[in-house]
Automatic annotation (TrEMBL):
<dbReference type="InterPro" id="IPR013126">
    <property type="entry name" value="Hsp_70_fam"/>
</dbReference>
<dbReference type="Pfam" id="PF00012">
    <property type="entry name" value="HSP70"/>
</dbReference>
<protein>
    <submittedName>
        <fullName>Molecular chaperone DnaK (HSP70)</fullName>
    </submittedName>
</protein>
<keyword id="KW-0143">Chaperone</keyword>
<keyword id="KW-0067">ATP-binding</keyword>
<dbReference type="InterPro" id="IPR043129">
    <property type="entry name" value="ATPase_NBD"/>
</dbReference>
<keyword id="KW-0547">Nucleotide-binding</keyword>
<feature type="region of interest" description="Disordered">
    <location>
        <begin position="362"/>
        <end position="424"/>
    </location>
</feature>
Length: 447
């Protein structure tokens, strides 16, 4: 059965989605389970003791003390001159990003028994023609014919594919593990969007910063219990690693619960700290107000009046934080805050656009809005607004990267999430969490 693939590689995690062709109709995209119990997998590459380049985070087994063997947060550095060093070898960020995309594609290929008809890969809306060309060339170098497209456009497409109203303009805040991007997208024709304006903040706030704030709070509260057990530097590092991991899980639990526990495993026993949603909001408010304020500035720069927006769309792994929606509503009063799209929304939108490309609805990939063709008009009966023309963005040629030696890519077994928080008495467990593809839910036609 023919299918298309969408891939979103963020600062900390990668997600993917597929859309299948059944009875002549491309079905609604569904997320790919990239590891046993999650639609997300670490966007991390590391060199194992045998010298093979592996996808996955060795720190999930414990702190990694040796420098130069792990590459993180490379997707946002595409096009930069500074290479990433892995055991003395220089890698461009776009090559590492392309390797992760190729690995995901190969895993889906193995499951489906055939290659995808089309592949779309997300990239930040702030990318220039140079960045996009560098990414496209790196994808081609690893043998992947994929089309890079902006994240906010794909988030809007994912919202539409899920049955969302086809608004003429949307404010989109994508916030992941290491940063955020605030954009306004507008419809260029009935089936696609383009970027009208985009902004990033002076400080790049992401989920990791929120986890760090909660971990600091927990460390201060548990210092009397932790202090006597941190007998050496390595043990102390292990405790801090576990505390950060627990803080992330607890923060996610507080997206839908009034309180949750940080459970820090120690030998012997464990220590616990209860955190309420109100306590978390007090910790996170100064951090999350910055992305919300930046979104309001992006709306002002777009020229689209706030009351003409079809809503605020929150996407990314941090989108479900209730405080984020509250702060966006405060900065954009009267604008509807749409249900958060979550970590897989961009990947689903990428698969939806890939289906449009496969169906021949576009002669060429949808325009990003950075070349002067984005058009916004008010709804019939509403007053017109004078909008500035989007800036022209000529595409400069990017030289091909020098040939690289063959890369051996393998995926290690990684430990999984050890328990459901409310299930008492459940011991920590390890699961083999290779980048494996799970079952798909039945789809519905797009559009």
């Amino acid at each position: 059965m023919a299918y298309v693939l969408g891939i979103d590689i963020g600062g900390t995690h990668v997600t993917a989605a597929v859309g299948v062709l059944a009875d002549g109709t491309w079905k609604r995209p569904t997320p790919v389970r990239l590891r046993g119990d999650s639609d997300e997998a670490p966007a991390v590459l590391h060199v194992d003791p045998e010298g093979a380049l592996q996808v996955g985070d060795p720190a999930e087994r414990g702190p990694v003390l040796r420098p130069g063997v792990v590459a993180r947060e490379f997707a946002g550095r595409i096009g930069a001159d500074a290479p990433v060093l892995l055991r003395g070898e220089r890698w461009s960020p776009q090559t590492l990003t392309a390797i992760v995309a190729r690995r995901v594609t190969d895993l889906v290929h193995d499951r489906e028994g055939r290659p995808p008809a089309r592949v779309v890969v997300a990239h930040p809306a702030t990318f220039t023609a140079h960045h996009v060309s560098a990414l496209r060339a790196a994808l081609a170098d690893v043998g992947l014919a994929a089309e890079p497209l902006p994240e906010p456009v794909l988030a809007a497409e994912g919202h539409a594919a899920r049955g969302g109203t086809g608004a003429r303009a949307l404010a989109v805040l994508t916030i992941g593990g290491t940063g955020f991007e605030a954009s306004v997208v507008t419809r260029t024709n009935p089936i696609t969007y383009a970027v009208r304006a985009t902004r990033t903040g002076a400080e790049q706030i992401g989920g990791a910063d929120l986890d760090e704030a909660l971990a600091h709070h927990a460390y201060d509260a548990l210092r009397p219990e932790i202090g006597p057990l941190a007998t050496d530097a390595e043990r102390h590092l292990r405790i801090l690693h576990d505390l950060r991991a627990e803080s992330r899980y607890t923060r996610e639990q507080l997206s839908h619960a009034g309180e949750a526990e940080i459970i820090l495993p120690l030998h012997p026993g464990e220590i616990r700290l209860t955190v309420t949603r109100d306590q978390l909001a007090t910790l996170l408010r100064p951090l999350l107000d910055h992305p919300a304020a930046t979104l309001a500035r992006a709306v002002a720069a777009s020229g689209v009046p706030p009351h003409h927006l079809g809503g605020v769309l929150l996407a990314g792994g941090t989108a479900h934080t209730p405080l984020l929606a509250e702060l966006c509503a405060a900065h954009l009063p009267g604008v509807t805050i749409l249900p958060p799209g979550g970590a897989t929304l961009v990947a689903e939108g990428a698969a939806a656009v890939a289906a449009q490309l496969a169906a021949g609805l576009h002669d060429a990939p949808p325009d990003t809005g950075r070349r002067g063709t984005a058009v916004w008009e008010p709804e019939p009966g509403q007053e017109p607004s004078v909008l500035p023309a989007p800036a022209s963005d000529g595409r400069a040629h990017t030289p091909d990267a020098p040939p690289r030696p063959p890369v051996r890519i393998s995926t290690p077994d990684l430990p999984g999430r050890r328990r459901t928080r409310r299930a008492q008495g459940m011991n920590a467990s390890a699961a083999a969490l290779v980048l494996a593809v799970g079952a798909f839910a039945p789809g519905i036609p797009i559009g």
